[in-house]
Structures are given as structure tokens and as C-alpha cells.
Amino acid sequence: MSDQHRPGGLTALAVINFIFGGLGLIGALGLAALLPMLAQGGAPGLSEEQRAQLETLTTLGNAPFLLAVASSAIGGLLLIVSGIGYLQQKRVLGRTLGNVYALFAIATSIPMALWLPAQIGGGFNLSTILNFLYPVLTLLLVNVTFKEDLTR
């Protein structure tokens, strides 16, 4: 057992990081699974409307998908590793990687919202709001509220 008591809020932040990180990695896998389908021009059994939407997405090339896959995967990994750091109350693993995640997520959420098609998470929606507000909340919590708790 450690000498320091971990605050419940820091534990809750770690759990939320694990949830969002897992969802980010699952989203990255899902988008990566679409890449071969785009190269083949779709999957058998798609309706005409679905084929038209797929055609619209492919006019931009694979760059939007690669950006979304990379952003989701990197953000998910940073969330999970920083969540482990929060539980262990580590300065570098928790606080530093939490800050790196937050800055990365803020920096990528704006271009993704503006550049990506709505079908893969672009535009202004609930996901966009979460992708911007949670990193801002993380910055505040890690650098103000739990600053003294992340010292090992």
C-alpha cells in the first residue's frame, strides 16, 4: 500500500480515461477496417444511397480516414497510459502524458471537425464537443485540482 491516499476524483478521472481510451481504440479499428472497403469501392449488398455516401467519402482520398485512425489511436493510447499514471499518482506517466493527450486532442479536434466528413466524425456534433471539452477539463484537473497528488 502506498503512503499517500489517492483522491476519489483522480480515480474517477482514470476510469473515464480508460473508457474514452478504449472507445478511441475501437473507433480507430473500425475506421481502419473501412480502408480496404474504400479501395474496393464498397462491400457487396450496399444500397444505392450507401454507395453514394461511400463515393462522396472516397473523393477526398484516404487522407481523412488516415487522419481519423491515427488521431483516435494516438489519443486512445495516451488516455489509457495517462489513466494508469493517474492511478499510480505518477508525475510523468500521469500528469505529463495527461497534458500531452489534452494538447494533442485540442490540436486535432478542430481540424478534424472542419475537414472530416460527418460520416466519419467530422462536423459539429456531440463527439466534437466531447473531443474538445474533455481535454480542456483534463488540463484543468491535472494542473490545478490534482497537481499535488501527481508527484511520484
The SS-based structural class is mainly alpha
Strand content: under 5%
Helix proportion range: over 70%
- Total strands: the figure is 0
- Low-pLDDT windows of residues: none
Straight-line distance between termini: 14 Å
Radius of gyration of CA atoms, rounded to a whole number: 18 Å
Give the integer mean of the pLDDT values: 84
Explain how this protein is built.
This protein has helices spanning 8-40, 48-58, 63-88, 91-115, 126-145. By secondary structure, it is mostly helical. α3 (63-88) runs antiparallel to α4 (91-115) and α4 (91-115) packs antiparallel against α5 (126-145).
Overview features:
single chain; 152 residues; mainly alpha; 5 helices; 0% strand
Q: Helices and strands in order, then pairings?
A:
Elements: H1 8-40, H2 48-58, H3 63-88, H4 91-115, H5 126-145
Q: Summarize this, please?
A:
The chain has 152 residues and is mainly alpha-helical. The chain is built from five helices and no strands. Helix 1 runs antiparallel to helix 3 and helix 4 packs antiparallel against helix 5.
